[in-house]
């Protein structure tokens, strides 16, 4: 039964303001929004009872899946004890325990200090401030610039927005925080330096060092990068790339920040993408999967050699930064329960194994399709890049293509992301508990959607090769909800 009364529809039209969304789409009385009302495991249901596989884990967030009573009960128990503790003045027991747990699993080392926030943007904002103040206290007052990658997404608060590499998100909010510089991303499929070569030549990382030399090493505070870049579609740093960045940071005295807001907590097959790729950053920013979305929380995990600069008996040395709801007791309790589930159910290993299976099946189903340029990713974080012509790699530029793709996927029972901040991609990042049957269904839906795309743009049709995926697709009435 629909829960959208006339009053609620009017409130949606008049009062609601969703994030990164044009609310004018809901102004029509005929608008039929999809409102998700229930979740269990890897599946969610809308107000009309239509079932979907959540192929994006909410927003790269619900790593352990929906309906986890253990986390819900941990939150409830904590709220019964005490609902709020000021992080400005008092440590809470869940905050202490979570900080120790994060330090234990982080590649920044067991003596790391953890500054807890409310989410990813706050975590990045915190890391940037730490890096700048750290450099100043080392005697380098001119080290204020931050290097990030083009097309990278790091948040929307003013500092995080300034290092954002997505110009369409930055534009319109200037003047931004000065000092952000952007370097090419290691985008192998369309690399300006080595796409036509048999292997990566490392020129993109050479460009990082060239920029440092051009700007002056004495002006660079930090470099911030994702192990696997989300914006652009699960772009995996090539072998040796992050190790070179580590060496460059060490050589020039630059703070290395790894943005693990998406990659952390099993998404790419380890506690952190940094660990999976064998690199040890100075600061890790994380959020999303830290609680699997059951409560808002983020963190900046800081290597002791940097954090110790702020620790003394002198009040003047403290880090002048704080967030009212940073490290909220209920969120910390949720995170501890969430991390226990990930460990107990071996979800890091499961992400590697199921991710490899899903990747194999996607390649088998659509890897040779005329409109598929590349299938890429790591762990349970992958993307299918779409092209007009596979041979020439001509870009696919179709009006409202992302809206059409999202609708096609949803009508077939799969919620995931169609994104064109670089080139058009279909992104998949399902919960780490995804079953093989659900993975097969995801592949089937993506394949059917891409073949529908081929008919839309007039490419040569090919036979669907689904490997071990089932031939029958469960029917949904999702189209009626659109």
Strand coverage percent:
15-25%
Strand segment tally: 18
Q: DSSP helix count?
A: 15
C-alpha termini separation = 16 Å
Morphology call? globular
Question: What percent of residues adopt helix (DSSP H or I)?
Answer: 25-40%
Question: Tags for this entry?
Answer:
482 residues, alpha/beta, 7-stranded mixed sheet, 5-stranded antiparallel sheet, 15 helices, 18 strands, globular
Explained architecture:
This protein has 482 residues and is an alpha/beta fold. It is built from 15 helices and 18 strands. The strands form 4 sheets. A 7-stranded mixed sheet has the order 4-12-11-10-7-5-6, with helices on both faces. Strands 13, 14, 15, 17 and 18 form a 5-stranded antiparallel sheet that branches. α13 runs parallel beside α15 (436-457). The longest helix has 22 residues, at 436-457.
């Amino acid at each position: 039964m629909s829960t959208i009364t006339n009053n609620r529809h009017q409130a949606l039209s008049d009062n609601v303001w969703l994030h990164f969304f044009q609310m004018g789409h809901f102004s029509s009385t005929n608008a039929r929004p999809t409102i998700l009302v229930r979740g269990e495991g890897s599946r969610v249901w809308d107000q009309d009872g239509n079932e979907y596989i959540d192929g994006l884990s909410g927003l790269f967030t619900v790593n352990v899946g929906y309906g986890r009573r253990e986390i819900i009960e941990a939150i409830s128990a904590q709220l019964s004890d005490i609902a709020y503790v000021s992080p400005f003045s008092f440590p809470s027991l869940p905050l202490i325990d979570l900080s120790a747990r994060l330090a234990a699993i982080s590649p920044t080392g067991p003596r790391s200090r953890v500054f807890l926030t409310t989410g990813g943007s706050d975590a990045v904002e915190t890391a940037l401030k730490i890096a700048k103040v750290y450099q100043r206290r080392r005697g380098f007052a001119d080290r204020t610039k931050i290097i990030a990658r083009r097309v990278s997404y790091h948040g929307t608060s003013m500092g995080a927005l300034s290092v954002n590499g997505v110009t369409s998100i930055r534009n319109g909010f200037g003047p931004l925080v000065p000092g952000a510089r952007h370097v090419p991303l290691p985008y192998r499929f369309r690399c300006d330096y080595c796409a036509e070569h048999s292997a990566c030549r490392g020129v993109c990382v050479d460009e990082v060092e060239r920029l440092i030399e051009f700007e002056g090493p004495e002006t660079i505070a930090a470099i911030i990068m994702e192990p696997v870049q989300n914006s652009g579609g699960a772009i995996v740093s090539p072998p040796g790339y992050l190790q070179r960045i580590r060496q460059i940071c060490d050589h020039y005295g630059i703070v290395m920040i790894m943005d693990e807001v998406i990659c952390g907590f099993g998404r790419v097959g380890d506690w952190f993408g940094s660990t999976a790729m064998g690199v040890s950053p100075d600061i890790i920013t994380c959020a999303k999967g830290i609680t699997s979305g059951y409560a808002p929380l983020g963190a900046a995990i800081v290597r002791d050699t940097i954090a110790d600069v702020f620790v003394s008996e002198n009040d003047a040395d403290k880090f002048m930064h704080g967030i009212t709801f940073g490290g909220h007791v209920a969120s910390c309790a949720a995170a501890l329960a969430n991390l226990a589930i990930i460990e107990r159910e071996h979800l890091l290993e499961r992400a590697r194994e199921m991710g490899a299976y899903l990747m194999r099946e996607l390649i088998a189903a659509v890897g040779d399709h005329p409109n598929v340029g590349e299938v890429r990713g790591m762990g349970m974080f992958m993307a299918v890049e779409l092209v007009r012509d596979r041979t020439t790699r001509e870009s696919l530029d179709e009006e409202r293509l992302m809206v059409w793709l999202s609708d096609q996927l949803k009508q077939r029972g799969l919620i995931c992301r169609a994104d064109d901040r670089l080139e058009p991609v279909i992104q998949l990042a399902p919960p780490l508990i995804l079953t093989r049957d659900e993975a097969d269904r995801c592949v089937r839906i993506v394949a059917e959607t891409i073949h529908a795309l081929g008919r839309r743009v007039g490419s040569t049709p090919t036979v669907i090769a689904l490997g071990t995926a089932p031939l029958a697709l469960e029917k949904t009435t999702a189209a009626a909800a659109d």
